[in-house]
Amino acid sequence: MTKAEEKMSDLMEEILDKKESLKIIENDLDSLKNQLIEVMINNKLIKFNTYTASATIMNFDRSSLIKDEVLMTVNSVNKGTLQGKIDIADLIKVSPVHFVLVRSKE
Fold it and tell me: Residues 23, 29, 32, 37: what is their CA dihedral angle, to the nearest 10 degrees?
C-alpha cells in the first residue's frame, strides 16, 4: 500500500468513526428532547425559559401532496380519461408534527 493509499484508508476509517459517533449523539439528543417534552407536558408547560436557553413545544399539522395520487391524477387528465373537477383534498396528506425547540439565548 502506498503512502497516499494508507492516508486515504486512514481518513475513510476516521470518517466512519465520526459518523458512528454522530449517530450516538443524535440518539442521545432525541432521548433528552423526549424527556424534556414529557416533563414539560406533565407540568402543563408549553414554554420554559432559563438564563441560558428557552424551550418551546411545537405542535402543528403539515400538509403535503401525495406524490403517487398526484402523478396518477395528472396522467389521467393528460390522457383525457379523467373528466370533471379534481378535489385537491384527495391529493393532500396532513401529518401532525410534534417536537420541542430548544434555543440558546446567546
Answer: -120
Joined grid coordinates for residue 61: 399539522
Residue 55 CB coordination number (10 Å):
19
Q: Please return the burial class of 82, using the count of CB atoms within 10 Å of its CB with bins 0-12, 13-18 and 19+.
A: middle
Distance CA 52, CA 99 (A): 20
pTM, two decimals, is 0.68
Q: Is the pLDDT of residue 82 over 90?
A: no
- Element holding 85 (H helix, E strand): none
Beta strands in 15-91 (DSSP E): 47-49, 53-65
For residue 100, the tally of other CB atoms under 10 A from its CB is 19
